[in-house]
């Protein structure tokens, strides 16, 4: 073979090598489990019902939690990503969808929507403080969900209440199934508590408003 032919073969090999590598990567992708926790809060027979609608804002979060990464806390100052798994959506988007559906399914409100979806009396804003599994070196994981909530009277923009709700669930083992089950239990408990909190705080707010003389410059009830 001539020197020119050898150079041509070498050039052809260099051109095809990236393609062969890419094909190998496509044939053997790293396995990834997409996690979509099912949250089902059943309406209670004694559930209070109100004649107003509620708007659910997209939860705020820091950069680590405003993503689809599944986080594991190894220590107070160290977060890692749970390998081979991701949430169906970013955590704030996923939680907003859960909040809207659970509040609507509760039957306690005349309407529930995302921000801008309808005219509502109250708005619920929130911030995600913790949404992660805790690995303390033992055989099991602990699921931690902590969120701060702010209830606002829409038309007057008056703050109604601020509160922080937290749930921790220990699960058996460190498998994906155990992890998802723990998040489902924590979210169901937290959202069930949240519905009662919204109803109680709005009721207290309207009682305070009714106690002030209608038409007063200090206060006027507006829907």
Walkthrough of the structure:
With 223 residues, this protein is an alpha/beta fold. It has a single domain (33-211), classed as 3-Layer(aba) Sandwich (Rossmann fold). Helices cover 34% and strands 30% of the residues. It is built from three helices and eight strands; from the N terminus they run αββββαββββα. Strands 1, 2, 3, 4, 5, 6, 7 and 8 form an eight-stranded mixed beta sheet that branches. β6 and β7 form a beta hairpin. The chain is elongated, with a radius of gyration of 25 Å. Residues 9-16, 19-26 and 216-223 have low confidence and may be disordered.
Query: Runs with pLDDT <50, length 5+?
Result: 9-16, 19-26, 216-223
Number of strands: 8
Roughly how many Å apart are the termini? 89 Å
Q: Please, how many domains? A: 1
Which term fits the overall shape? Answer: elongated
CATH topology name: Rossmann fold
Say which CATH homologous superfamily is assigned. Answer: ABC-type transport auxiliary lipoprotein component
Kindly name the structural category: alpha/beta
* Approximate strand percentage: 25-35%
Mean pLDDT: 85
Oligomer: single chain
The total count of helices amounts to 3
Q: Describe the main β-sheet briefly.
A: 8 strands, mixed
Helix/strand order, N-terminal first: HEEEEHEEEEH
The CATH architecture designation is 3-Layer(aba) Sandwich
CATH class: Alpha Beta
Fraction of residues in helices?
25-40%
Rg measurement, Å: 25 Å
């Amino acid at each position: 073979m001539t020197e020119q032919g050898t150079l041509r073969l070498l050039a052809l090999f260099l051109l095809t090598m990236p393609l062969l590598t890419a094909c190998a990567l496509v044939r053997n992708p790293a396995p990834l489990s997409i996690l979509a926790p099912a949250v089902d809060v059943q309406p209670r027979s004694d559930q209070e019902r109100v004649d107003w609608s509620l708007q659910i804002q997209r939860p705020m979060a820091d950069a680590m939690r405003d993503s689809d990464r599944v986080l594991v806390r190894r220590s107070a100052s160290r977060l890692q990503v749970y390998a081979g798994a991701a949430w169906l959506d970013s955590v704030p988007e996923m939680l907003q969808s859960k909040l809207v559906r659970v509040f609507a399914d509760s039957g306690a409100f005349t309407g529930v929507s995302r921000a801008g979806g309808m005219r509502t009396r109250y708005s619920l804003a929130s911030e995600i403080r913790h949404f992660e599994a805790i690995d303390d070196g033992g055989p099991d994981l602990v699921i931690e969900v902590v969120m701060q909530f702010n209830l606002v009277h829409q038309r007057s923009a008056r703050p109604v209440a601020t509160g922080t709700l937290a749930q921790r669930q220990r699960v058996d083992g460190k498998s994906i199934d155990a992890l998802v089950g723990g998040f489902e239990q924590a979210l169901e408990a937290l959202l069930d508590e949240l519905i009662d909190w919204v109803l109680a705080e709005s009721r207290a707010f309207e009682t305070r408003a009714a106690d002030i003389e209608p038409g007063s410059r200090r206060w006027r009830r507006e829907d």
